[in-house]
Write a structure and sequence with these properties.
With 326 residues, the chain is an alpha/beta fold. It has 2 domains: 2-168, Peroxisomal Thiolase, Chain A, domain 1 (3-Layer(aba) Sandwich), CATH 3.40.47; 176-325, Thiolase/Chalcone synthase (Peroxisomal Thiolase, Chain A, domain 1), CATH 3.40.47.10. Helices cover 32% and strands 23% of the residues. The protein is built from 10 helices and 13 strands. It has helices spanning 19-22, 30-37, 50-65, 89-97, 113-127, 150-153, 218-239, 257-267, 278-281, 288-298, and strands spanning 2-11, 16-18, 41-43, 74-78, 103-107, 132-140, 158-168, 176-179, 187-188, 215-216, 247-252, 307-314, 318-325. A 5-stranded mixed beta sheet has the order 1-7-6-4-5, sandwiched between helices. The protein has a 4-stranded mixed beta sheet with strand order 8-13-12-11, with helices on both faces. Helix 3 packs across helix 4 (89-97). The protein is globular, with a radius of gyration of 19 Å. The two termini are 16 Å apart.
């Protein structure tokens, strides 16, 4: 027993900021940003929230799967930027969708989050505990972005993606995941509720201090990604005795065009197997893989029987890859 994706959905706010808008905030240019990242624009929340985007993406995934919310018995939401602490985002999504039979909880693994949520759902389905899972990556990274830091504000955007996974009898693949907390300082963000251990003691005027916004050592993250992701993919294929020639698509976390291109080169694979949409959305953390997956699904690019690799990497540091058959 394993699981199979039978529906996808995504949502992005209608308001966008292109590189010219970013150039009004920091010293940069459209040419500079595109050359170094591949990002052209990013979607930014206005009235939307992490929960509302997650719920809409989930609804679209259910519609695509032809399923009712009442058929879902597990909801997982991967996010580092929820607008709610209690109840969890997944329970709020349950309420919005009317998924009254679902068990719900959140995961926090940043840009690797959707891959880990997928793996978690697959393990539950394989064990027979649940039959139908809704997995969602949803992020409002604009709330955590330092809009005065040129090194990070050019990268991030908001959005949500979702997939419905149904238990089925077909070949199960073993995922590969890793973490290295010793290198976690490369990408970090301190909780606004953490000040000398006194919860709620942060003056609201201090909430936008740099330490409460995302901090990133871009060079360290780049070096980590271009080395770790190919190694994880090679490990994944070896574990499952699958050849690269059998892989139709490598759907990577959409962090930076140069990272994706470097991974393709190190794997010796054609860049044509590595779809990208980061030019439209920027880095949406745990939402990036499911948003891309949904776009490819709705364009008819995903064909029955294709083998697909999902690979995430980011804060933690965490990274991993999973193999699925469409």
């Amino acid at each position: 027993m394993t699981g199979k994706i039978c529906g996808t959905g995504s949502f992005a706010p209608s308001f966008t900021m292109d590189n010219h808008d970013i150039a009004k905030l920091v010293e940069t240019s459209d040419e500079w940003i595109q050359e170094r990242t591949g990002v052209v624009r990013r979607h930014i929340i206005r009235e939307e929230t992490t929960v509302s985007m997650a719920a809409e993406a989930g609804k679209r995934a259910l519609d695509n799967a032809g399923m009712s919310a009442k058929e879902i018995d597990l909801i997982l939401v991967s996010t580092i930027s929820s607008n709610v602490v209690l109840p969890c985002a997944a329970c709020e999504v349950q309420k919005e969708l009317g998924a009254v039979h679902a068990t719900c909880f959140d995961l926090s693994a940043a840009c690797t989050g959707f891959v880990l949520a997928y793996n978690t759902a697959m393990a539950y389905l394989a064990s027979g505990v649940y039959q139908n899972a809704l997995i969602i990556g949803s992020e409002s990274l604009s709330n955590l972005t330092n809009w005065e830091d040129r090194g990070t504000c050019i990268l991030f955007g908001d959005g949500a993606g979702a997939a419905v996974v149904r238990a089925c009898d077909q070949k199960a693949y073993i995922p590969v995941t890793h973490s290295d907390g010793a290198r976690g300082a490369a990408l970090s963000c301190t909780s606004r509720y953490d000040k000398s251990g006194l919860a709620g003691n942060v003056d609201p005027q201090e909430w936008m201090e740099d330490r409460y916004l995302m901090q990133m050592d871009g060079r360290a993250v780049f070096k980590f990604a271009v080395k770790s992701v190919p190694q994880a993919v090679e490990e994944l294929l070896e574990k499952n005795q699958v050849e690269k020639e059998e892989i139709a698509w490598y759907i990577l976390h959409q962090a930076n065009r140069r990272i994706v291109e470097s991974v393709a080169k190190r794997l010796g694979e054609s860049i044509e197997k590595f779809p990208m949409n980061l030019q439209e959305y920027g880095n949406t953390s745990s939402a990036s893989i499911p948003i891309l997956l949904d776009e490819m699904n709705r364009k008819g690019l995903l064909k029955r029987g294709q083998k697909i690799v999902l690979a995430g990497f980011g804060a933690g540091l965490t990274w991993g890859a999973s193999l699925l058959e469409w």
